[in-house]
Amino acid sequence: MTFNKLSAALRGTMAAALMAGTSCFASAALAEPDMLLRAGHSSALTSTGHAALEMLNDRLMERTDGRIGIQIFPNSQLGGEREQIESIQLGNLDMAYVSTAPVASFDQDFFVLDLPFAFKDRDAVFRVLDGEVGHDLLDGLQNVGLVGLAFWENGFRQLANDKKVVHTPDDLAGMKMRTMENEVHIATWRELGANPSPLSFSELFTSLQQGTFDAMESPINLFYDMKFNEVQSYISRTNHLYGAWVLLMSPDTLAMLSDEDREIFMQAVAETTADQRALAIEADDKAMAAMPEVTITDLTDEELAAFSEQMAPVYDLVAEKVGDELVQKVVAAAKGE
């Protein structure tokens, strides 16, 4: 089975699972599996991504009678996201879920998902990720030694800092801003007047604690899971970017699965994707309510417009990398056109 055929098959099972909203699965068998897949990630044990890997393990253990399972390495135990991607390419790691931003360093087309203020809501997001654009992005990863299995939900990214409430770009002037290791993210915050620098996620908490950075941005559920509320006092709900995770697999690992096990695996991924997305939406709401010590500000339409109106140079940068046609596809799909 070729990777393109695999991706097409996975899309079919995923669509069925997303419509059904299936979330029932049995507990994993206690016996050690014959094939133990090593899966890494950079988020906390309490994250919805970690919970999803546990769900996927349970489904695989049940449906293969305990032959296939997953050993999970959380909290960047196997390195940062870039290092985990490289390990998958080298065949040293079977699976990982990572942010889409560092994936763009391996496949430039992924920069298109970093278009700031491109998505009005989750419906707009999934018109892109579950449509032609998302399918092509996952399929394209085969060209860089990766198998793209699915897009998982990590939520809209929000601006946080420990200085003041941010209402407009002027409030960011001179603020030391941590960004992901992604050229488009850096350009976005530079256009908005901040002083951005990339830093590995695993080093972020300590850097904020020591005052190396004033500000950061992340989905609210991740902000809460990683206890950034202990070092940041203000959140402005900018929704400037949507934070997707992409579930990656080593092609060498995939090739080890029989046709029957591959079908079981794809179905389990599809069902787990539906469950993970639902969990992530709930996690955002719970995180908001669990941080009374943080001042969370909803920006007005006029305030949000002041941010988005400065993004033309960033759109030009993305178009230089991926082509204007792909940019326009994303913009049109997000609008439902």
UniProtKB/TrEMBL annotation:
<dbReference type="GO" id="GO:0055085">
    <property type="term" value="P:transmembrane transport"/>
</dbReference>
<protein>
    <submittedName>
        <fullName>Tripartite ATP-independent transporter solute receptor, DctP family</fullName>
    </submittedName>
</protein>
<feature type="signal peptide">
    <location>
        <begin position="1"/>
        <end position="28"/>
    </location>
</feature>
<dbReference type="GO" id="GO:0030288">
    <property type="term" value="C:outer membrane-bounded periplasmic space"/>
</dbReference>
<dbReference type="InterPro" id="IPR038404">
    <property type="entry name" value="TRAP_DctP_sf"/>
</dbReference>
<dbReference type="InterPro" id="IPR018389">
    <property type="entry name" value="DctP_fam"/>
</dbReference>
<keyword id="KW-0732">Signal</keyword>
<dbReference type="Pfam" id="PF03480">
    <property type="entry name" value="DctP"/>
</dbReference>
<keyword id="KW-0574">Periplasm</keyword>
<keyword id="KW-0675">Receptor</keyword>
<dbReference type="InterPro" id="IPR004682">
    <property type="entry name" value="TRAP_DctP"/>
</dbReference>
<dbReference type="GO" id="GO:0030246">
    <property type="term" value="F:carbohydrate binding"/>
</dbReference>
